[in-house]
Design a protein that fits this description.
42% helix, alpha/beta, 3 domains, Rossmann fold, 434 Repressor (Amino-terminal Domain)
Amino acid sequence: MTSSIEDVAKLAGVSIATVSRSLRGLPDVAPATRDRVLTAARELNYVASPFAARLASGRTATVGVVVPFVNRWFFAEILGAVEAVLHDRGFDLLLYNLGDTAGRDRFFNTMPVRKRVDALVVASLVLTESETDALLALGIPIGLLGVGSPRFHSVRIDDADAASLAVQHLIDLGHRRIGLIGGDTDDPMRFTPPHHRRQGYIDVLRKAGIDYEPELEVLGYFTVDGGEAATKELLARPNRPTALFAESDEMAWGALRALRRAGLRVPQDVAVVGFDEHPVAELFDLTTIAQPVVEQATILTSELLQLMPDLSARPHEEVLPTRLIVRGSTDPSRSVM
């Protein structure tokens, strides 16, 4: 038979409130009384309910994570990393997948996280002023992942700089007609990487004295099929590109498939660079930009847990480095295929 807190109180000769304070380690209990309560709990094999302890402390031991799209690799990696940190600390994860504009509006209008989480991670969302105010009104630690803000703690990469690194690699190899397979810059979720990576592409072309040609830019919507369709469109241009920069590895895989089906060699006819260092990028022999996805989520989550006792800390932004990994899709001498 399972023992109750009432049983412990009766055996120790104290009130139920004293048992609760003793088991939670609160300071307003005499050492001798606490010892008597702990001894009684051991004798009865009593285990306190974690849910009751959470209610008593005013904490939920839960961290919320808000993502624009749950079915994309990047956000799946984030969720896995956040959950790993929380698991080690005895916290739960509560997921909010916005999905579309209606979902986003519903979230910020109703604020379903209120009184349900102790901290909140918001991934890859550029917040409006009203959304910012709604989050600040929660009175809990809030961190942004993938974007920066002077009003919140954040961890991100420099997407523009990383894209510049990819395109400069192609320029150094002698390419001048470099196509861009981008994400959706008009996405209603205001997902930031397409804007910044596109700007890095344009900036490095201009620094190299290469004119930006709008006809060399096609959207791939961060999917394999989108990358393939975009590549087919670029190959149909009168003067096709000799190299492609895809803003994600998934779109780069689609590009490789389209090139193969068109009978073109990679990289001899068309070189390809991706972005992310997806776990299977090496299998495709894909040159790519490696970004520390797991590290971003791990660092931000750990910082938020540390901030819980004290909300007075000034917002801090951390920008993690990216790196170019050269493989056979741009350099035949490094090909493993």
